[in-house]
Structures are given as C-alpha cells and as structure tokens.
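Tutorial, part two.
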Amino acid sequence: MKKGYYFTTRDLLFIAGFSAIGGLASTYINMIGDFFQSLLGFAGTTQWAAGLHILWILLAVGIVNKPGTAVLTGVLKGLVELLSGNTHGVLVLIVDVVAGLVVELIFYFPILSSLWKNILAGGLAAASNVFVFQIFASVPSDSLAFWSLLVVGGMAFLSGVVFGGIISQIVIKNLAKTGIISQPMMGSKVHWTRVGFVLLGVLLCAVFAFVYTQTAKGAGEVVLSGNVTADQIFNAQTTTITPISVESELQGMAGTYTGYPIKDILAQAGAGDDSDLILVTATDGYSYFITMDEVRSNPHLILVASGEGKDASYSVVGATNSKAWVRGVAELTVFQSVPVPISMAGNVIAEFHPQHWQFDMDSVYFELETGSKKLQGVAVYLVLDTLTLPTPYEQAVFSNGNDNITLDKVSIEQDDTIRIFVNIDGYSMNYLLGTLQGQVLLDNVNSITLQ
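Running the prediction step on this input gives:
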C-alpha cells in the first residue's frame, strides 16, 4: 500500500477519538441550539451551533492528513450518536456521512488554500444537514419554502464557517507549531484511495437511507392501548373523525398541516378520566410522552396521515415539545403516571413528576433484562435544585425497596450525566437512575430521601 494512504494506529486513534468526542457531545450541542431557539425565536436559530458538529471531522482531517479521513470520521461519529440514543435514529448516520462526503469533496479542489478549504468545507458540511432533514425527516406537507430553506441553511453555513472552518484551522495551525502534526493539510491530487472512500461514503448513504426509510415508514394504522375502553385501531381511511387544518411551528419554522385531533381520537377510544399521560411510540422504537392536559388544551395537536393502505404513515404534529413531533407513529398508549416521593427528615417534601421535565429530557439506550431500550431522562441536579428544603442536604439516597444507592451533593451537582430516566413497560411506569453513557445505577427507583 502506498505511503500516505495507510491509516496507522496513531491515525485511527485520532479518528476514533474525535468521532467519540463529537458523537457524545452532540446532545449538548443540540441543547445549545435549542437554547438559542428559545431565546431568539426566529427561523434558523436551532442551526446556530451546527458548525460544532463539523468541527470534529475537520480536526481529524487536519491531524491525520490523509484522504478518506472525513468519510471514516463521519461514519464512526454517526455510529456513536446512534448508539448513545440520538432521537433521530438511523437518520443521524446519513447526516454525518453526508457531512464527511462534503468535506472530502471540498478537499478535491487544488486551487484552494487550506484555510479556504476548511472554511468552505465547514460551511457546506454544516448546511448539508438542513437538506438531509428536508429530504428524509420533514413531516408530510411540511417541506420548507425556498426562502425558509435559505434562512435555515444560511444560518447553518455561517455556523460551519465559524465553528467548523475557522476554529479548526486555528487549532490545527497551533498544533502544527508544536510539531504534533505536519502541514500542509490533505494533498490536492486526486488519488484512487480518495475516490474509493467517496464511493464508499455514497454507498453507505444509500444503505442507511434504505434502512431509515424501512424503519421509519408507517405501519398502516395506529394502535390505541392502555387505559382505554378496549384496545383499538385508528385508520384514516375508516375513521369517522373529521380532519382539520392547523398552523403549527417546529423549531422556529411555521407550517400548515391537515390531520385528526388527537383529543378526538382518544375520546373515541374511551380514554380514562384519571389518565394523565400518553406515550407516543414510533415504528423505529423511538417514544416520547405528551400530557393529557396538553391533549385537552392544545388545538394544534393532531395526527397527520400520509400514504395509503398498509403503507400509510402517521405523524404527531403540533406538540409543544419538539421531541414529541414523532414520525411513523405505531401506538398511542394512555396511562396514569406514578410520581416518586422525595422525603427529608421523615416527611415527604415534594414529588418527581416526569411531565414537569419533558423539555429537559434526553434519550439514552440502556441494556435492560428485557433487551436494549431507549429511555428519556432528566438530570438529578435540576430536579433537586428546584426544591424548597427546610435545611440543605448533603446526600441523596435512591431506593427501590430492596436496594439503595447514595450520591453526595457534590457529585450530583458536578455531574449532569446522572439522570432519572422514565421506563414505561406495557402500561406501567417505573424509574431508573442512570447516566448518559448508558450505565444503570439503580432500577425501579420508587423513593428519594435527602439527608
């Protein structure tokens, strides 16, 4: 194998390291985007941090300095994001591989300096996620208008230029001065190895796209289960419910949707009056919950149908929480939540209700006795910081009735990866104390005692 196309152990360690860091950091990067969206509230603000997703690919490219690095880093980064519980599922693989392909292709151009290659690659790779999501993940009848696409894509491009292109170039130049890496960056000459990696990336995108479309496609109907008169099936072709059209906004972008009010669907199924949550489960296993209070009070909450027959697909639209806009809905489960009592000095001073924290939750895969499962959880320190305590606490004891685990206050406040996760099994709810890395600390938590 020719020198310059061979990934040494050092190369692979850098690629694996940046892929892991970038993949695991995606949760926090998305939180940054959500923060600016809620703060500024105009179209495209969720893409403010898009360049931070590309930074790691460009750093790997600059340090390894070999063709194919961008594609390989994109694949590994996407796998890390997928396995760490990214809510977009297989789609995140397509996003990261396409970003890697864009970077790889930009470095084809011999007339560009390394600075301009980085800037252009960072901007275009960051903007590519907007178009990938439009192709694969837009809710039916929700493709962005041309000007809206330019606004959102433009914001992502600028973020990619700053956080991907410029910052990565600054880091790489400073590393070069220390002798850790050598310049120039990847050669401009087109080699067959580079062509091979580009073709491999295209092939992987095609495979991931096929897998995604298969897992995300509809089941033809939606099962209504749990605390209902009897398990029922909702089918747009047979329902007597009248569809309505609503205007709803998702992450700063407004759209008009036509579908069936979820309130009417559940009323027809005979949802119990004591129910306070519904769990929305998609065909790919993703799930999120919506409160019954929102079902009753949100007139924009509808079930949108697309396609016909057994391939019909359903999507929840109009939820206040963007994470509850679920595509490929397979089941709506109605149930009564069970809070976790929080005690101090022998008295119950508060309760943990998951519906109060739905905007602060992130999803993670756990290996449970029943198999791999994606759960939603909120940081323990957020829950405890909101409490009005008679005296300051030094440690928190989590119990399931048989086993206990004690965490000190310092550990809780310094480690926001320690979370309370909601585990809904069938029609019952329990809680798991775990970490964002998928480590189970204690299952079936039913009480929290502060000492």
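Residues 9-216 form a domain with the Arp2/3 complex 21 kDa subunit ARPC3 fold (CATH 1.10.1760). In part three we will examine how such features are distributed along the chain.
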